[in-house]
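Researcher: Batch entry, complex prediction.
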Amino acid sequence: MRSLDVAVVVYPGSNCDRDMFYALELSGFRPRFVGLKGELRGYPVIAVPGGFSYGDYLRPGAVAAREEISHRIREEAERGALVLGVCNGFQILVEMGLLPGALLQNEDGLFSCRWVDLLVEDASTPFTRCYRPGQRISLPIANGFGRYYRGGGDVRVVMRYVHDVNGSEEGIAAVANEAGNVLGMMPHPERACEEILGGTDGIALFRSMMEHLSSLL
Amino acid sequence: MRYLSHLVEVLGREPSPVERHAFEVAWSEHCGYSHTRAYISRLPGVSREVNAGVVELGEGLVCVFKIESHNHPSAVEPYNGAATGVGGIIRDVLAMGVRPVAILDSLHMHRVIDGIVAGIGDYGNAIGVPTVGGQLRVSSRFRHNPLVNAMALGVGRGSEVVPSRATSPDQVIVVFGGLTGRDGIHGASFASRDLSGEHERINIQVGDPFAEKLLIEAFLQMRSEGLVDGAQDLGAGGVLMATCELMGKGGLGGTVHLDAVPLREPDMEGWEVLLSESQERMAVVTTPDRAGRVLEIAREHMLYGAVVARLDRSGLYRAVFGGEVLLEVPVRALLEAPAEEALEVSPPPLSSLRVSFGFEDESAAPIFSRYDYMVGNDTVLPPGLGPAVLRVKGSRRGVAVCVHSREDLAESSPYWASFVALFEACRKLVSVGARPVGVTDGLNYGDPDVDPLGLALTMRGLEDACRQLGLPVVSGNASLYNTFEGTPIPPTLIVGAVGAVEDVYGVSRRPPRGKVFRVGFEGFDPSREARVWRGMEVLRDRGCFLMAPSSFPSATLRDVLRSMGLSLKVLRPIPRGFDQTFLAVSPEGELEGLDLPWEEVGEIS
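Model: Structure tokens for the complex:
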């Protein structure tokens, strides 16, 4: 039986690690922080949280993507573990080449923190199975480099912005790998799990992962 | 150097060049509070013996907070000046042993200076502390002297709070964090001067938010492992002020080994190491047997550190570099800057009070969205509707916080400007259901030597208003000499007010659709404030959404409502005044049976 353990990878400078931990715990998972020298083997879910790994110096995610622990993330992804990258986590997965495309500076050059409306385009991934296809949801964004650039390749689009928020190509907000077990998204589902914080549309993402894990039993 | 003759008297001889450097910093207005100390000591509940003040929130929870200015650096180099202002105030709160959970910024400028906004945003966003609110005041009065004040707030358990002093001669002081360079030498004395001089850029520190984030996590780990007996951040005056304050507040002395400080620039002189204001550094008091673990944690967080001081009972501050004693003076002499006498003033009549200039109606909403105001998952009430409200995880309790000032009243009456600012800040807290519990004061003033009376009145107004509301001033900051070619800014006392929220789940996050009423009294009479607070309680219980702005409408309010899908219709605009009123958005029409005057002023739909 697969456990409900989730590795929350903490790079130097990660700052949404504790929020991710909190939301996972709220959703019934058993999160563990895993640092640069930590062990990832055996975790059915690996969360790469947002923040500013290595201060975003050089380029967001670029330094973190070259850390040893990132190679371990790739190994576990190839073994079928679910890998969720949010915000800077998405940028790291893209820098690793685990997800296609690139994340560029927002079109207006500014950091932007606000709630945005999204459409769940692909509700068949292990991260989105509890949403309805085409469901309109609201999640917060908080980034300066969130403009998704597809680069001409085929991309499995999971969520799109309803309105243009940062110049992302085709409004892409979240993408998955072909197998569907790696998801990268700029919006923060971990900030949208309680009414008191302004919305609960993030809960279904964590519940989706939970259902997916139980379906494997 | 100011107070040179006093220094000769204290030392009983001419000071050496290094002593002159040291005392110029230690006795600068920024570190020594020469012009304000007498007034500060009269404020209720003040203990300036700690880095930041502590108030209780109930259930063993405490809130630690302080406001600090970075006006002079921000005027010269907006981006780094503002960024390091945020970094510094975060470390003040951190040094108390609790996790910083919120930043607020109070900006006074003649136009929105992008570098200042970007500096605050880039620093705060990267360290993962949400910037939950603030104040934007745009007026030509601040053309040459922009004011950048940042407030930080930490929440934790009372048992986590660490003292700001050493307690035993068996202890040592570890300095850890980023490397020490030549940046910011004499920053404290620079911040205590008129701004029209040249060659100012040399004194600006440069911020490294990545190092600050590592510093936060490393320090909190040291604290949770029980390694920290006392702590102090390295701010103005660098190693000198941090170590001598830790010694002096514990009644101790000690020897500082400047050769041990990890340097970025290896050819630095001893006095430069002593006075460098390089950012992202902290001093930790621990024992020799635990110092190894402290340094190990620093290394694990990619930071540098060393044991730099050993303590003793001599009462002397001794700094050694290259085998030579650079400085050997009584610790108390460094800490006891000469103090100017307080002027005795009495409250002027209220009739002198009027609004003497206006502000541009510039929306702060585009600024709020450039700050991550949500990270931490605790922001209940987002910026723009009044005070920020944060929850405390694992409890139903929360904390409300706002920054507020009334410098537009200060040219007519500095006393009443302070008084009204405090009352209005507290009204804002009460509007979200919080009970005001404490205040931090950010004084921004012109030249106290030219206009000592205005300073006395500004401080007396704060003192009297705090006494009337029964509120302690738990921390504060004074920025003087905000002048340009002799012309001062209006006296600007920024109140950072904190309230305890008993049930944070009862706070409404957004206004309902409904009529907007203005409730309360015209004019200002402190004795009526309790009735206004009671009226707010009654209306909140009836499901009204309350706000307490100084004018209505504002571009910020319109923008914030629009972002929530709401629009505002104004029946009667309310210009900036000093009436004791608040706004109530009522989902159910008229306000029947209320014991306060009210009128309809608009509608939210």
